[in-house]
Amino acid sequence: MRARDPWNRLLVVPALLALAVVWLVTSTWAARWSYPYDLEWMEGGVLAHAWRVMHAEPIYTEPGPDWIPMVYTPGYYYVLAVLGKLFGLSHALGRAVSIVGSLGAGAALIWGAHRRFGRPELGLIGAAIYFATYTHVGGFHDLVRPDALGVGLLAWALVLGTEPGQRARDAAAAALFAAFVVKHNLAVFGLPLTVGLWAWRGWRPALRLGLAAAVPGLLYTVFMQVTTHGHFLGFVYEVPASHPIVWTRVVPGTVREIGHAVEFVLAGLALWLLALGPRIAPKLPVPVVVIPPALGAAAAMWWLPTLDAVFGIPKETPFEGACAYALVGAAAVALPLGVLGMLASRRLDGPWVLGAGITCVAAVVAGVMRGHHGGYMNVFMPLDWVLAAAFVALLADAGAQLPGWRGALLATVLASAQLGSHLVDDMDLDRYTPDANDVEAGDRVVAWLTDQPGPMLSPFAPWIAAQSGHAPSFHLISLWDINHKDGPYRDAVDRITAAFGEHHWATVVDAPESMGYRLPRNYRQAKVFSFSGRALLPRSGWRRRPGVVWVPLDNARDDADDADDDVPTEDDAPEMDEP
Length: 579
Known about the structure:
Largest sheet: 4 strands, mixed
Shape: globular
Number of domains: 2
Order of helices and strands: HHHHHHHHHHHHHHHHHHHEHHHEHEE
Strand content: under 5%
Strand order of the largest sheet: 1-2-4-3
Distance between the termini: 42 Å
Oligomer: single chain
Radius of gyration: 25 Å
Number of helices: 23
Number of strands: 4
């Protein structure tokens, strides 16, 4: 860049804001990294899966009192198990893997901005915007969950997938396959990536990338299905398919939530859609490709706010909502017009096809997963990354179409507004950071449980059992997942309910009486821990700490005739606390 390039001077402001965001978020990761207890209520369940891999125990089995798997592909568990052999299995190890995944997602934006636009500083801004959504997704960027690693692999698949070199595209296929093994719903991004590559680079590179990612994925699925006697797809596909969807969380819920997270990104993308129209569809009159999307944006801004409010999500401001509604309305009209314009021109705009396809898929996946019963904020992570990448492309295009100070000024204003809004309003990071009181409370619980007999059931915090010298149990979310009337494993709930009557577990930890499943009829409270404030409470997800210990009753009542009255249904599962 030339010394007098206005980008050198104007982008200093958003670059400094980006560095401030990165510093704040990564400092929070560092403060949370070694905390030895659950920061999110499912962390212990994930560690329990890795523990089973380390001990050569199967994951995908017929559910019963001793084990119920979660509904995820096992890649993250494998990584933890391999590293656990070297470093010991712990929360710190799991979080280190997730932090590497998050840093990798940010690095992909920086590398991609350098390769595509020659401006790595734009990638830094995009990475900071992705990191700044940390509180929006409930602090999942550094948790013992597969999300961060999956997004990191997906990010590199999308960045490398459009490179001109074949080796890079082969690496993209490998990254996409790995992302599928870590979190299976990320495989759907292979479709827009392949179609976009076909439109941009031709059918041969697209076919090779698609086959290189899909064939290993198919073979892996067949292998897992055969070796688990059909239980792999039973849990990864059939169990989630039996869950209901709360459609109000899809529309208008996801639209409002994204507006609350990255409002200036959405405003810029809405304006960009209008500006791109004449370039994508040069054969169509300019009013045709500009006015209808503008009217679509206006209609969405009028209609979507009239829909019923969605319980449990942060209330967006009028500006945040307007930005989100405008983008949705403009996109609903602009995308079909873009396709018609390319047909009229008999040429494909490869980058446009790629970007539009990936963004639409990311939005649909986020919406459906958020609407899925129990869907939490972490489902927005792939969409957040895609929107950050789209914003980088917008900033670069502004510089190309508006040379001199105008493009640099527009990029500076948009980026500074978005990053500044996070620093001012959203970066409430203290609530996500544990302290010495949390550690002391957890140590006290573990010390007491160490002397208790097993087997031990700890449905809210399975790793507490492992830390106390016992085998970890299944997680309560796994029991809730199969407890749906149309689910393939619904009958197993009766066996697990009967296990309480049979005193299958010598010790039951942190299960409230409202858990049901005949627990209160057959067990008594042997210990109730007292905690001060929010000590040992998870910082994300369901706020429940291991505070009550149950032991078998001598005069337990089986009451098999009315057992059904004591078995909760899916409607009894609580909604997660939102950040």
